[in-house]
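Researcher: Here's my situation. A collaborator sent me these components and asked whether they could plausibly form a single complex. I don't have experimental data yet, so a predicted model of the whole assembly would be a useful starting point for our discussion.
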Amino acid sequence: MLHASAAPQPPDRLNDFVIKLANVNGTGSASANSLLMKSMFRMGIPVMGKNYFPSNIQGLPTWYEIRVTRDGYVARSGRIDLMVAMNAETYAKDVKDVSPGGYLIYDSTWPRPALLKRDDITILGAPLARICNETFQGVRARILLKNIMYAGLLAALLEIDLDEMRKLLGESYSSKKSLLESNVRALELGYNYAKEHFTCPLPLRVTRMDKTSNHILIDGNTAAALGCLYAGATVGAWYPITPSTSLMDAFKSFCGKWRVDPANGKHNYLIVQCEDELAAIGAVIGAAWNGARSFTPTSGPGISLMNEFIGLAYYAEVPAVIFDIQRVGPSTGMPTRTQQCDLMLAAYASHGDTRHVLLFPNSPEECFYMAAQAFDLAERLQTPVFVMSDLDIGMNDWMCPDLKWDDSYQPDRGKVLSREQLEGIDKFYRYFDKDGDAIPYRTLPGTHPKGAYFTRGSGHTQYGGYTEDSTEYQIVLDRLKRKFDTAKSLVPKAVIDGKSTQGMGLVSLGSCDGAVREALDLLRGRGVQIDYMRVRAFPFGPEVEEFLASHEKIFVVEQNRDAQLRSLLTLETAVEKAKLHSILHYSGLPMASSVIVEGVLAAAGSLSAAVGEPRVARVAEGRFS
Amino acid sequence: MSFIAKPKIAHPGLPKNELGLTRRDYEGAMSTLCAGCGHDSITAAMIEACWEMSMRPEQLVKLSGIGCSSKTTAYFVSGAHGFNSVHGRMPSIATGAVAANRDLYYVGISGDGDTLSIGFGQFAHAIRRNLNMLYVIENNGVYGLTKGQFSASADIGTKAKKGEENQQPPVDPVLTALTLGCTFIARSFSGDKEQLVPLIRAGLKHRGFALIDVLSPCVTFNDHVGSTKSYAFVRDHYDEVVHADFVAPAQEITAKYAEGDAMPVTLHDGSRILLRKLDPSYNPTHRGQVFNYLREKLAQNEYVTGLIYIDGNSPDFHEVNATTETPLNRLPYDALTPGSKGLDKILSRFR
């Protein structure tokens, strides 16, 4: 177990600690946990929330982790300072997981097994179930309100503003007065019990800051759905799959508010829940071919099913936007755990020579902007574009700067010939590189008989006709390769930080970013200076080549077993393979800064050999009972 | 899929439709199918129907999957966009295309392998959506392009060219469509243009999913003695139950029919289908009765043809989805974005 952060424990725990809440799923703990996190957020304190939930509806263990972080770090630290152990089944493990010097709160309605003692932590018991049973009627209400009670308990122990919590409950239950009353009652019962029985506050506590104004708490799937709304997407096709489902749910909800004509109830959108992912991507391609902005949210298994169609869209040059909310594989894997394990799958999806444009958002904020950008790129390049999010970004609430929208934005619909343009030309050739950028012109059905052509996945000439001629076939295939080069100049550039003199670099992507940034701060504290490049898209631009060329030793941090980003870098750039040292995390839990710090120190040979194999930080923290 | 461009020579005396176009204007590339293929007759019927309807060529969208049948979308109406997609997945392409633009006519050409094997799921779900399209199955009971394997519509006991006998029961697309709630079901024979052309016209005008299962013998791999999808067998076991005549709105006045002889069905745009029932007891609007009738005839080894079932009242794909009247692909961006002011409102939920 890697309990300790590689950093020394900060002496001052004000607004800087981690709470973990162990519950049973389906008991309503989500509302209590969200109440806790949001109340601190409203006190102006930066927070991070991660939900570890089972692939199940009711009865299995679930955890929620809240990091209170005055420095505004967005990733896990690897510590647990306060455990709320509400699940008897996982109690033994939960006790073990508390960092030394930490606290554990349990429901003392039932006796605590003496075996589970720890001398290096403080254990506080409160008879939550007993008080609930004495106060409230109905089994369901008692279970739900027990959770709100522990929120009240923590409010007293941590000095969370009770008024903020009451206000939040008021917003949640504005139309259900009796529910509001019982929730406030439970909150106050918990608060008062702690005030009477414990020394409040604990050394871990919060106090108001001003670091969350102009910020929101939002999950990546909601933000991506919002990006689709603002991009002007009109057709969504999908098949439900965790962890992507909430993206289409959110899009549907936004459309219900913003895309329905109040006069007649007609929809300026159409969402098709398909029979499977094969049909979902087919519908996306059909709609985009016919001139509508269309998209599908899915996850790894869905991408596997879509492979044949993705190759068709690549070769027939049809736009498509695909959100891959990555989850743990292979096969069904662990549907409710996070990974970045579809990089290779998406980059080369389908049979034959295919390469695809991928975008790597690092947060819900980038999910919003990159979602909109994905439609512009797909239509400009006439090709599928993947937004490679993951469960951590997609389903957890992240603190982000307010999303902004530039009202001067107009969608880039790419090279689509209008009726008037077709009138003015002699003959239309679908796959001809007229402009020298390897992007041909396309036409939409219904425009003009002159624009008609036959779209096919089989061999075609640059003029759009059928062919089995070697030369004609190769002309088109080679142009597609040049088009991928054009894509390099259009996709978002890598973000590069630091001017280290030590010649060390670190490359990462997506949801690793927060943990990397914190780790680099911690390493700097130990005199280790590393430059950082976060790649934001595939294909890699010239700045990626330049960074790789200018560093002697480069760490590649990613969340999969097989070092897929490292593979892509070695395949698609001129980098010398031996320069790239992997730090891999694939437990299914979101990346923690401790993993990177330990990985770098281990590789640098300055950490004790006990940590494990060099260059790979194996984190034995997966507990997926 | 032709290598050869068709010579564009038209006799000045060729008849013209309301748009001033001749039948030649509705042709496509030269067919590369075998001489005598039933599919080419269906292509000819498509050309005839589009010409008769005075359809602007660009108003048609041709969709297909993979197989001999799916190649035929290149052989008619070259002024229309075509999409020859992947095997068995044409219905999903159609779903997206129909969603994007509700103002065009969509025809999907498929085969028995494309529809009843690899594409069985997509076929079923396009029917369930009552997707606005005409779906034609060019049904020959055999895989032609891969040289003669039985397809899922091959009858028990039918013989392959080399004598092998099929042992598995066939999937009947008409019975299947009936049970799935299909709103327009017809069966015809590639050799019967008189029956087929009005069915195509009616199917294109039908609001919702129109299925025409066309028995279309494969002259190379399935036209021998012992095959139940040969020209000779189909002609002998062919039983038209309801003949459909299509009457465009403008022709209404000249169309004559005696009450009782014909059963008119008015389509959403005012055009009509006149159904001449050849079996007076047959009711093409009663799903259960139709099902029983087909089963009885099947037991007698008879292919029931004609307009077998019609329901003009069920909501189509767009009605179910409350899609706005303007095609989605033509909505201006302003109608789609809440703008920066809207974003402020949206974000208040996340504070």
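Model: Some features of this prediction you could bring to your collaborator: Residues 488 and 541 of chain A are 5 Å apart (CA to CA). Chain A touches chain B through 71 residues (CB under 8 Å).
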